[in-house]
User: Which sequence fits this backbone?
DNA sequence: AAATTAATATGATATATATCAGCTAATACC
DNA sequence: GGTATTAGCTGATATATATCATATTAATTT
């Protein structure tokens, strides 16, 4: 596998959830992975894995970014998170019914490495630290979902959009200013509100000098105010 | 450990998430658990574990029921689920920061068996099926949380309350009629709405002949209608 | 049994947010 | 290069749900 430096994650109330599985393999196991793995290039907008389809491989992102979408039965979608190197696209189908429980779409041109899920399972069974690391990773996922549940049920639009902006700036782009391929409607889906509401709330933040944006360029001007809005709901 | 028959779970879009860890132990491991474990009796309303406190034991419910609550910073609570034998009260603090990420409160008089978390960790490390089972369990938890997220963000009050009633009848009491120690405000917290809204929506269902209730007694009259309300949102 | 408290219920009102409609700017296509 | 199409934006309106106030009933306590 490619290099795999764990990154620090500053998001409020959530601990670092980067998976470092592949760091824990011994030479033999690493060779098995390298013999088995293959790399696929996705263009921006292409679907990497589709919800409900069979989970046959665990993916490791080498380059680019992927949107993780929860699709509802009526066409609604929640944009759960954005993954990038060294994140793993696996999902809760592993070791259950081996189906994908989310759709992953390339946000930009993205390179991902496919590892057969049966090999991955063998690694879990044969390598205790690998298994323990996976358990820790799943638990951190659960913690993040608890936070997301609280956020969505207890916070109003301002708070939810503030959370999204903080997440993008802190975790995804790691910069107070960033140019993104996310559309307004992606930002709305991340914050669980309509398109129009997201646009209106963004404009409101801009009018109040909290952020600036033009097209796909965004800049966090008053991070502390944004954090405060997030806290107040 | 006590007997541990897996139960079938009929809930929409969610697979059986009963943990069957302790079935997978060999004699030696079972002896270690039995030598280490101790049983505590909780009266209805007593706190079993408190959010943010140290996770020192994994609990196995022998008798009774426990409400699992996510507490927000501003006093808001989400009632996530209700656990009963043979459910395990562990939580995502295991193998991460060893803190509790929810509060568990005895809904009725409840008996739980405490297993030291270090012993539990040793079991995970020394017993592959046990570890794989834990991973499957965590993934099912994640699947349930995905469903919960979709439910809360895409469904209106009718749909959310219908989900709660179906859950209580199918999973918790396994009977179309039941007497519960859950208050109206518990039901509201399960459905993520205010007290008043829960009461109003319950009355609405009653007026339409979908359910009947009086005090703490509930009866599902038209399960199919309820399921339809849940689907429509 | 009376008195206090808490839980449940109901109505009136406020508010957050979605929906609908129209409009502008940017991008894709012929 | 001009037209078509999509994404972004704005305003008016509708609706779901929370909030507040106030009964009513049930559960405790005295």
Assistant:
């Amino acid at each position: 596998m490619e290099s795999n430096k764990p990154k620090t994650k500053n998001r409020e109330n959530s601990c670092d959830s980067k998976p470092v599985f592949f760091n824990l393999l011994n030479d033999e196991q690493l060779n098995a992975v390298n013999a088995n793995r293959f790399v696929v290039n996705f263009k921006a907008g292409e679907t990497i894995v589709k919800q409900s389809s069979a989970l046959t491989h665990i993916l490791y992102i080498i380059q680019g970014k992927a949107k993780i979408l929860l699709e509802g039965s009526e066409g609604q979608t929640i944009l759960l998170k954005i993954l990038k190197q060294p994140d793993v696209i696996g999902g809760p189908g592993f070791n259950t019914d081996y189906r994908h429980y989310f759709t992953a779409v390339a946000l930009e041109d993205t390179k991902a490495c496919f590892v057969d899920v049966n090999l991955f399972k063998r690694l879990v069974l044969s390598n205790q630290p690998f298994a323990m690391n996976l358990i820790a990773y799943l638990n951190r996922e659960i913690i993040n979902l608890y936070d997301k549940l609280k956020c969505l049920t207890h916070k109003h639009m301002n708070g939810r959009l503030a959370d999204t902006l903080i997440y993008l700036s802190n975790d995804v782009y790691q910069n107070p200013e960033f140019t993104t391929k996310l559309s307004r409607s992606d930002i709305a889906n991340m914050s669980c509100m309509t398109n129009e509401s997201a646009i209106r709330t963004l404009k409101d933040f801009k009018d109040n000098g909290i952020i600036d944006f033009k097209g796909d360029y965004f800049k966090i001007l008053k991070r502390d105010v944004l954090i405060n809005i997030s806290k107040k709901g």
Observations:
- Residues 128-154 of chain A form the longest helix (27 residues).
- The longest strand of chain A covers residues 77-84.
- Chain A touches chain B at residues 15, 70, 72-74, 76, 78, 80, 92-97, 101-102, 124-125, 128, 131-132, 134-136, 138-143, 145-146, 148-150, 152-154, 192, 231, 233 (CB under 8 Å).
- Residues 58 and 80 of chain A are 18 Å apart (CA to CA).
